[in-house]
Amino acid sequence: MTLLAIFLALVFLQVLLSAALEKSWVTPPMIFAGAGMGLLVLMPGLHDQAGSLELWLHLAEAGLVLLLFTDASRTDLQVLRRIRGLPGRLLSAGMLLTLLLGALLALACFSRLTVWEAGILAAILAPTDAGLGQIIVNSPRVPVKIRQALNVEAGLNDGLSVPFLLFFIALAGAGAEGNHASLLRFIVEQLGGGVLIGGGIGGVGGWLLNVATRRRWMTAASQQLGAVALPLFCILASEACGASMFIAAFVAGLAVQLRFREAGRHSVEFTENWGQLLNLSVFFLFGMIVAKDWTRFGAAHALYAILSLTVVRMIPVGIALSGAGLGRATVLFMGWFGPRGLASIVLGLVYLEHTARHPGESTIRLAVMMTVLLSIMAHGLSAVPGIRLYARHLRRLPLGSPELDEGACGESRDASATPTKHP
Which fold has domain 28-409? Predict the structure, then answer.
């Protein structure tokens, strides 16, 4: 009860200062993760009130599902069709190279990890965070095609990481599926099932919401609840079928727009409040866990965290985007702004839930915590100045540059869809 009261007081304080915080470089995840760390240092006895691993996992999963559905539901499908090459590059070659490079550097940094344990660590840290990247996705100073590419990448790469994670867990001898697990079967079940469930729930749900709206069966206030119920249905259906709830939620957000264009606005209204509250609670608890294990961090964990946010992210992005005609500054911008946050926390919890204790568990857990913590701070502090520097660079580019190509993104140089106010 004490922990909940402190968290709610912090939420209320953040709300009171929200206008001032929006003008600063300090982000809500930084505040709540830092508060969780400081609280446990001052009151170590509160750690027992943080709840079980299962409860924390469900909170994190629900927050990520809502966030993915929201991001997808406000993704312009027409723009997405025109820029499908960029997300495709990031999610294919970029994703595979990230997994490979992340595993190789894990073996170099942690000599006691096996090959499959290194793969587990790489898979947990491969996805980027849609929530930590919201300030980039919502900024009108960043070209639409760049914003949408990063948004789609963040929406899908966590779901794509799941089959690799489960496969590596199985091969490491720690998974419930055994050592004869098939990556192809995981891909079909996780990705294929997620796409079918998300497409079905989003398509049918959008059609029903559209019919109810046109025939005035539904009040305007109820539309928000109707839109938010869809990603929650995705959670239930995915768990029943063994599919990826994250893929299902993102696909449902895309599919619901086909018949109910207002879904994005209503889901954003909800996520800015209750969905954000879930996410902040996860970062708050994450900060407490980090503080509990702070003395166990070593130089190798810090080194890997730095490499994960730079080399492991930026080299694959550079290779994946080669030949796309984008300038060096754009490639660097997209490479750097691949934050690790809620998605990696969720996958880390999935790993701990599926595995029995083995020698590499502590190393993997500490490396994930250090990387996410560093990302929360580094990407939070660099977002505003990074956007400013990139926008200054864009003003010097000719109008025919790929970043500003009107035919590619359907927008003029300075035009943009009205951004959603980020929490």
Answer: Na+/H+ antiporter like fold (1.20.1530)
